Amino acid sequence: MIKTIVFVKRRSGTSFYQFCRYWLETHAAITAELPGLRSLQFNLVRPEYQRGQTDWDGVSCAIFENEHAMGLAARSEAFQEMLADEENFVDTSRRSPLIVDPLARMGTMPTRPGGSAETVKSMTPVWRQPGVTRESFAHYWREAHGKLLCNLPHLRALVQNTPRLRSMRHTPWCDGVAESWWDTYQGLQQAFQSPAYQSLEQDERRFLDLTRGNPLIVREVQIVSEGKLVF
After folding, report:
1. Is the pLDDT of residue 69 over 60?
2. Cα torsion angle, 209, 52, 91, 74, sign
3. Number of domains composing the chain
4. What is the pLDDT of residue 110?
């Protein structure tokens, strides 16, 4: 399994409502035509839960069987049609893709086919501190820090995504993306006030650049599941 994550911002002059509607009602069907696509999720930022302006309006997550299948999709006519359609609603100059290795740390992602999950989801890009190598960061984040993340109350599921360097042509724009599913938004807030979070925060100071990486609260919509369009 190989996964891509793409952070996107809407085009200037496009409202957030217009962006979401076009992404789901038009662009989803175009993206679903990619050959070899096993799973596709669109994650729409929830403005009511954000603190101030965000750098992104949505995040796309796609899964392919293997690197060969992903390569065939990237060279397909359907991929070119998808990129051309993005010009209609996405600021393509800020399009930020990643190819990642996902690690499911706990739980089952509670996505409902054809719609959003009942739980609250957060997506957080993370960066390493200056002087920390990419390799040591990835190991510590997944092995040691991941265990502390799993201690947070109200956390239903957690996936840690680290860039797959051998598959990327360019230097990754961040060092990882955490996907977290929570019971409720109130539960998420309580988790960040818990003793478990205090231990987590102390550990973050050892290796994370805490000046970056604000979490996005998103609504997850499943577009393709097991190779079939479900939205």
Report:
1. yes
2. positive
3. 1
4. 57
